[in-house]
Structures are given as C-alpha cells and as structure tokens.
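Support request, priority: normal
Reporter: lab tech (M.K.)
Component: structure prediction queue

Hi team, I submitted a job for Epoxyqueuosine reductase from Acidihalobacter ferrooxydans yesterday, and the status page still shows it as pending. I've pasted the exact input below so you can check whether something in the sequence is tripping the parser. The sequence length should be 345 residues. Please let me know if I need to resubmit or if it's stuck on your end.
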Amino acid sequence: MTRLAARIKHWARELGFGACGITDTDLSEAHAHLHAWLAAGRHGEMDYMARHGSKRSHPAELVPGTLRVICVRMDYLPPAGAEADTVLNVPTAAYISRYALGRDYHKVMRKRLQRLAERIEAQVGPFGYRAFVDSAPVLEKPLAQKAGLGWIGKHTNLLARDAGSWFFLGELYTDLPLPVDAAGDAHCGHCQACLDICPTQAIVAPYQLDARRCISYLTIELHGAIPEPLRPLLGNRIYGCDDCQLVCPWNRFARPAAEPDFAPRDGLDAPRLIELFAWDEAEFLARTEGSAIRRIGHARWLRNIAVALGNAPRSPAVIAALRARTDHPDALVREHVAWALAQHG
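Reply from support: The job had stalled in the queue. We restarted it manually and it finished. Here are the results:
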C-alpha cells in the first residue's frame, strides 16, 4: 500500500494535478465547525449545506466502505489575459472571478479523477471508489488540509505554501487502506489582509465567513434580490469575487494554470458591462456553454450586471443600457434595473 500510494501521487502529477495527498475519514473537528456555522445561519440560502444529515462530515455514510480519501488540487490562475487588479479598477468593465473564465472545472477535474481511478484499477484490480468535484456533500477543504495539501486560511480558502490558493480541489473516496499523509500546518500568522480587504466585510473574524455578505454568494448562490445596502459594495464584480486571494501574501507563490481549458474564453477576462448587459438569453447560453457561469441563468446574470451599472460612472450609454431593460419580463431584473437608474438620479 505504501508503494501504491507513491504511485498514485505520481500518476496524479502526470494527469495535471498540482498535488495529491491521502487522508482518513475522521472529520470530527470539521463537523463541529460546520454545525456551529449552520446554527448561526451564516450559510444564507444555501440549504444544501444543511441537507444530507451527517453524510458531509462522515464520508463512509455518503459512500459506504470508504476508508481513505485521495485529495488533489489543480491550478487555475490564467497565465494570460487581463490582470485582475486592472479590471477591478475600471468601473465600466465587468469583473468575473478568475476561476470561471475558462471551461467548467467540474468537468475537467472529474474526467482526470476518473482516469486516476482507472490507473489504480489497472494496478490492483477492481476496487470501491467515487470521484467528487464540488458536486456532493463533501467537506473538501478540511479533507485537503488533513491530506497535507495546505491549510485553511483566515479567509476560509485552502492555502499552500508553494501554490497560494488559486487552485481547485477534488476527491476520490476509496476503500483501499492506503497510508495517510500528515496534515498541513497553518501559516497565516498575524496577517489579516484578507479581513481588511473584503469589500462587504464578510470575513467577520479569522477563519469565520458569513456567506450572506460574501460577494461570491450574492452573485452566484443567492436566487433572489441582492440586499440594497450591499449593492454599492459590489462595485463591478458580476460573478464572484477574488479580493481576499488577490491580497494574500502567499499567492506570490501561485503557479499559472498548465491546463489549456482554464484559459479565458470570449474575452471574459476584461469585458464591458454594457456589452454583457445586451446579451439576450440565447446569446448568454451560447457564450457560456461549457462554463461555470451558466449555472446562474440569464436573469441573475442581468441582475448582477444591473447592480454593476448602477455603481458605474453616469453616462448616456449606461443610462440607455439600463432603460432598455426596464420592461424585462423578470421582476427580479426590473427591480435591480430600477435601483441602478435611481443611483444615477
């Protein structure tokens, strides 16, 4: 099993993963943290975080027979395209979280995990496994930390000393009794740059995130209206937010993505708000095919852009773009357009 574990890590590297580690299924500490977070209501409308009973923190309940979890990470920071800081400083541009600029990571990583499982099967014969990429009740960050891939930082993202935080996580639940790796040590120290930079102060304390204030939650997970007091704080961020990662000192060690599928598509690394706001539903679906962005749907796409246009400098073009959507059939869009127009008097 020791030799097999070493081979698994070697195969993971060959398949494009930046790192691979193995852990057991004891998540008692993470279980307590999760339940305290849920009890405080900090998950907002993400009811799926409370569903499935204890399966999220007990891997063997989700996949019977699970003894170990093989954890992997894959770098996604685009090696080319507009710099994030540059886009954030142009109020007429639309900022999209860097993870969503290319192909949907779920599809890319799940295929690679399946290939990793097939290599293991070719070595040991049929075995029990199931691959996950942010697609089931899995506590991926605590598992990755236990597997030695890094530590959960004060912004609640996983950090690695040699790779920062610009990476995706994936897991292979397995019934193989593989040796486990040492857990990652924390190295945030006294730094609280992520707490200070958060536009909405969603990081309410070190290692504590109130999703209800997080821009990623507001622009992606939230289905209804964005709370009015928070709208001006979104700036030009229309899908996700990277501020806590952009300011993190450890990301000076981040590595550009080697995966071509994560390269920016359709100029989404620095698009113009007005141009995106003009997309009808057919164009939205066509332009976001194979992208994680598609999951929010056209109405929420327009909702988010309307807020950004309300935060943009007043101009005849901005006003005209908003007025063209005042009679949109979706009440959610109409309300946010009306708010944006009111911002411009």
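The first strand starts at residue 19 and ends at 23. Residues 2-78+100-174 form one domain. Let us know if anything else looks off. Ticket resolved.
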